[in-house]
Amino acid sequence: MNPLRWLGRRALALLRSFGHAAGFFLDLVVHIPAALRRFSLVVAQIHAIGNLSLVIILASGLAVGFVLALQMYYALVPYGATESLGLIVNLSLVRELGPVVAALLFAGRAGTSLTAEIGLMKAGEQLAAMEMMAVDPRSRVLAPRFIGGILSMPLLAGLFSAVGILGAYVVAVRMIGLDEGNFWGLMQARVDVWRDVGNGIVKSFVFGVVCTAVALYQGYETEATPEGVAYATTRTVVISSLGVLGMDFVLTALMFSTP
Fold first, then answer.
1. What is the mean pLDDT of the chain?
2. How far is CA 146 from CA 109, 111, 212, 219, in A?
3. pLDDT tens string 202-253
4. What is the pLDDT averaged over residues 123-150?
5. What are the pLDDT digits (tens) for 166-186?
6. Gap between the Cα atoms of 112 and 218, Å rounded
7. pLDDT of res. 216
8. Contact between residue 105 and residue 52 where contact means Cβ atoms under 8 Å apart
9. How open is the CA angle 158-166-56, to the nearest 5 degrees?
10. Average pLDDT in the 140-151 region?
11. Radius of gyration of the CA atoms of the chain, in A
């Protein structure tokens, strides 16, 4: 086969898939008002997506806080700047590690669950049965999960950062012996609510949109076979993770490029 022809076919197939995914995303957005009118469905999805992800989020946040405090302490000791440990840990978590790591965990736990659930509903012809009964599965099934994922992600990222800061406090103050007042005081004086915490919330919101939309798209468009569902869950983790990392670079460049 002509390499140029093969490359052209691959490029066209990629553009078609991007266009199809964009149309699916816009359709989800259009169905959000209908889902909000059945807010009990959204609340149930917040529980299934967010509350059931708490264990891995809290455990990971605590572990990251422990390790980050130790690493930063050993890095700051040669420069006599250990009093800045609390500030560095806080900024690292609320600006970067909290939203990004929580989003990657969200994609691995909640994203794959959503993909598998929607894929199995398609394989069992439940979505087709809804359409036969004049029930739109996008407003009844997909949109509540989309809203639930978007609302859950900032809350999970905030809890991740809070627990991480608590873990850093335990290591820095209780174990190493740094001054407690200095640990919290410098953090309160130098961390800006809107520029630092607010930007982290915006990041986590965007990551929630990316991860939830990818998970729902992969589940809805998967082949109605066990192998298709398995491949779709793998694609969800890969695409969501790459999307989170790519959007993190773009958002960081936009948020922190100007003083």
1. 88
2. 15, 11, 6, 12
3. 999 999 999 999 999 998 888 877 788 888 899 999 999 999 999 999 999 8
4. 85
5. 999 999 999 988 888 888 888
6. 9
7. 92
8. no
9. 55
10. 91
11. 21
Q: What angle do CA 15, 7, 16 make, to 5 degrees?
A: 15
52: Cβ contacts below 8 Å, ≥ 6 apart: 110
In our burial notation (b when 16+ CB lie closer than 10 A, e otherwise), range 56-88 reads bbbebbbebbbebbeebbeeeeeeeebebbbbb
Phi-psi region of 135 (alpha: psi -120 to 50; beta: other; left: phi over 0): beta
Q: Which residue has the tokens 């670079």?
A: 249
Tokens of 65: 């806080």
Q: Tell me which residue has tokens 């398609």.
A: 122
Both structure tokens of 10: 């691959």
Give 138's contacts (C-beta < 8 A, 6+ positions apart): 27, 28, 31
Pair 151, 41: CB distance under 8 Å: no
